[in-house]
Each structure stands twice: as C-alpha cells, then as structure tokens.
Amino acid sequence: MGNRQEELETTVLLQSYDIVAISETWWDESYDWSVAIEGYKLFRRDRQGRRGRSVALYVKEWIESEEMSLKNSQEEVESLWVGIRDRGNKGNLVVGVFYRPPDQGVPTDEAFLLQLQKASRSKALVLLGDFNHPDICWKSNTVSCRQSRRFLECLDDNFLRQEIDSPTRGDVTLDLIVTNASELIRDVKIGGSLGCSNHALVEFIVIRDTC
Questions:
Q1: 54 lies in some domain
Q2: Which end of the chain is more exposed for a tag (fewer CB within 10 A), N or C?
Q3: Which domain holds residue 6?
Q4: Domain total for the chain?
C-alpha cells in the first residue's frame, strides 16, 4: 500500500484539490498514521473484515465540513456523506462517496437508494464513487438488470443527473458523478490512474455561488 499512498499524497498536494473522494480502499485502524495528508481533514468509513470495501473523503482543512448521518448502524451500505458549509452561508454542499460491490444484494441496494433520496433534498448534492452498474448505457438510459433499473428510477424520481458518459474502467462506465445541481459541475476529465488501479481518475470543478 505504501507506494500507492505516496502517489496519492503526491498527486493531491501537487494538484491542490479541495476535495478528494476514494472508493474501495483497503484501510483499517492499522493505517491511521499512514493515510493522513498534511492540510487535509480525512473522513473515512472502514469495513471491518472486508478489505477493499471502504470509502474515504479528504477535505482541505480550511473548508468547514462535517460528517452527516443518513443511515442507521445496521445498514451495510458502503457510503460516506459530508456537509460542506458555503462561505456565503447560503446552504450546504453535500458531498458523498459510495462503493457498490458487484455482488451487492437487493436489500442493501434499497437501503442505499433511501440514503440517496434523503441526500437529494439538499440544496446541492455531488455523489461520487464506483457504482458497479456495467449494464447501464448512459447515452440511451437503457439497462438489462433490475437493480440497475431501480437505480435509474431513483435518479429520475429525485431529479438527479449522472454526469459521466465515458468509460472509467475498460469499456464500461462504473465510476459516476450524481448531482441535483448539474449547473455547478464543470470541466469533467477522465484519464490516468493511481498506482495499479484499473479505474480511471475522475476530475472536475464544482462552481459555488460567490455573490
């Protein structure tokens, strides 16, 4: 893990990202000292006994942020939600990161969709992650799997849009940007990778109202 973490830290500091979302981490308590990045607050959701199913968010320390709770303790959804306070005090930006294992069952899918429904009520929502719905064609909004269809229905029912239509792993689009404020999303770039990851990096800008 050392080389990949060093590459992550170098990339984050070089690009000076305000927020960095990571899905499918391999962290546990033994990594507490080694995953910190100077100048960033780290939010993380580790899954005990399930390596590779965790999620994390780095947020610059000067940004006012706090973790939000959108699920009960019994849910096994691999998600993390953080509220970002607007400097103009006009409402929070909610940033979420989600990992959906390929073998995730219907009950866990439905629990996540309930979380997404709650999060969609925020003024501005940006949800990132590896959703593992390879059967969805985002250009035509067609699917072949019932669970993927439920996901698309949830997006439609809650006025959410998905902003990526290019492949992020091989020839499929697994990593998504879901938002209720498409006008805030700019300059989406897909390319490169971190370490030996077979997923492309996704980079974009969120325009916040400064008036």
A1: yes
A2: C
A3: 2-206
A4: 1
28 found inside a domain? yes
Torsions phi, psi of 180, nearest 5?
Answer: -105, 10
| Structural domain contains residue 211 | no
Q: Are the C-beta atoms of residues 53 and 99 closer than 8 Å to each other?
A: yes
User: In tens digits, what is the pLDDT along the chain, a chain of 211 residues?
Assistant: 456 678 888 889 999 999 999 987 765 555 555 688 999 999 988 765 555 468 999 999 999 999 998 876 567 899 999 999 876 655 689 999 999 999 999 999 999 999 999 999 999 999 999 999 999 999 999 999 999 999 999 999 999 999 998 999 999 999 999 999 999 999 999 987 676 677 888 999 998 764 4
Least Cα distance to 94 among 124, 72, 70 occurs for: 124
Distance CA 161, CA 175 (A): 14
Q: Find the CATH number of the domain harbouring 47.
A: 3.60.10.10
How many whole angstroms separate alpha carbon 69 and alpha carbon 189? Answer: 30
State how far the Cα of 164 lies from the Cα of 195, in Å rounded to an integer: 22
Q: Is residue 175 part of a domain?
A: yes
